[in-house]
Design a protein that fits this description.
- With 436 residues, the protein is α/β, with parallel strands linked by helices.
- An 8-stranded parallel sheet has the order 13-12-11-5-2-1-15-14. Strands 16-17-18-23-20-21 form a 6-stranded antiparallel sheet.
- It is elongated.
Length: 436
């Protein structure tokens, strides 16, 4: 499937385009800024873009007011249609954030409840108690998402709510020709709704793709033939930066073997999860790593492991941002994309990934493992690639049976000879495609 071979790019539009945090009601055509980024995306090797929230909201996008209108801080529906058309013309597919677990206090249905209370036709769209009260002194209580009462939880057991959301997605497909959704907090979304969404989107567009956000546990609870095609691999996100910071490659190997190994009890062999080193919710990888020399290695590991890679805007040239400084620090305005040595390296890793059958579809097998070095095999059909990481500040000579005499490094294009041991430069990575 096309999605299993993609290189994804995440944009948080309200942040990247410099919109004010609170919805000021002023129409600005900021989303058109994305048009200027298309040459950068193509040079980087991106094949799909995942847009964070674009629809009218109270503040940060995840508190939706209107699922069928582009946020005025970003522009108009016509503006976004133009952006989507240009991306498609350049061979780049489009994912939107599907925020279906909750809405904002400004959502039209909730506003009607506040006005008309028990007489509102939308009173059963939410979990309400008219005998209670809330922090806004509305004279009623409602359930918020994980205690956040700017996020009003939707009643997805109500068919009218599900109809409204599904019809909204149909409008997105019709108007913007989107190719998939990333489902916000999918681990909390009603399972029957997920099943309906999967069935409905299968009918809307061939090969439409659903990615569920899930933080832990068994990913198969929502990643299965009835619900999501894929999920966010938070376990390996943590394992990547933590393995480098602790100089302990055993950590990430433990996750990869548990998820993708060949033992009967391994969890996700043959499945394709979203791999990432950072996103809009977590500290940027450039701020997370203790040793900046490990930054390109983190991207190499992300591209070499099973799954498809997702790059968060700006991280490809090393933007920093810490979660403890607040979400806006993770979602900065960027005047224009930059390009440096790290960006060159990330582009080479993405090109290697999307151009290799073994790296896209191959199984996983550990070959060599120490605290600071890690080599594993990806093999599919007649193609075999060895992913090698040396996190040490010194050269390392790896002695192992490569199963071939020579290989081409898919990152550098250089020929590698396995005779006399494999020399790994300090703080380096390689994708060796073995020649038979």
């Amino acid at each position: 499937m096309w999605a299993e071979e993609m290189a994804m790019y995440q944009i948080y539009p309200l942040g990247m385009c410099g919109a004010p945090f609170a919805n000021d009601g002023v129409l600005e055509h900021r989303i058109l800024k994305v048009l200027d980024w298309i040459p950068h995306l193509k040079k980087l090797g991106i094949t799909s873009v995942y847009f964070g929230p674009v629809f009218e909201s109270d503040t940060h996008g995840y508190n939706t007011r209107d699922y069928r209108k582009i946020d005025c801080r970003l522009g108009t529906n016509e503006d976004f249609k133009k952006v989507c058309g240009a991306l498609h013309e350049n061979g780049i597919r489009i994912f939107l954030d599907g925020v279906f677990n909750h809405v904002g206090r400004g959502f039209f249905g909730f506003q009607d409840v506040l006005k008309n209370r028990e007489n509102s036709p939308y009173k059963d769209w939410f979990y309400l108690n008219f005998g209670g009260n809330d922090a806004w002194n509305d004279g009623l209580w409602y359930e918020g998402w994980e205690g956040n009462y700017d996020l009003v939880k939707l009643n997805l057991d109500n068919p009218a709510v599900c109809d409204y959301l599904v019809d909204s997605v149909k409008e997105w497909v019709k108007e913007f020709d989107i190719d998939g959704l990333r489902l916000d907090v999918a681990y909390m979304v009603n399972r029957n709704f997920l099943k309906r969404l999967r069935w409905e989107t299968d009918q809307m567009k061939p090969a439409f793709y659903l990615i569920g956000e899930i933080l832990g546990g068994d990913y198969r609870q929502i990643m299965n033939p009835e619900m999501c095609h894929s999920v966010t691999n938070y376990e390996c996100y943590k394992g990547i930066y933590s393995s480098f910071n602790s100089m302990n490659m055993f950590e990430i190997n433990s996750s990869l073997e548990r998820q993708f190994g060949t033992d009967p009890w391994d969890l996700y062999p043959g499945m394709h999860l979203m791999s990432f080193v950072d996103n809009h919710d977590v500290t940027r990888i450039a701020s997370n790593l203790t040793n900046k020399k490990h930054l390109p290695l983190a991207f190499a590991l992300m591209c070499g492991m099973p799954g498809y890679p997702c790059v968060y805007y700006g991280s490809e040239w090393g933007i920093e941002g810490r979660k403890q400084d607040g979400d806006p620090a993770l979602r900065p305005a960027v005047a224009k994309p930059e390009w440096n040595e790290l960006t060159d390296y990330v582009a080479a890793c993405l090109k290697a990934k999307t151009g290799s059958e073994a790296l896209c579809y191959g199984g996983f097998r550990k070959v060599l493992l120490t605290n600071r070095q890690y080599i594993f095999e990806r093999k599919s059909g007649h193609e075999r690639v060895l992913v090698a990481i040396n996190a040490d500040e010194n050269e390392y000579v790896a002695h192992f049976d490569a199963g071939c005499g020579q290989a081409v490094d898919l990152i550098t294009g250089k020929l590698h000879d396995f005779g006399g041991g494999s020399h790994l430069a300090p703080c380096s990575a390689a994708f060796w495609k073995c020649e038979r």
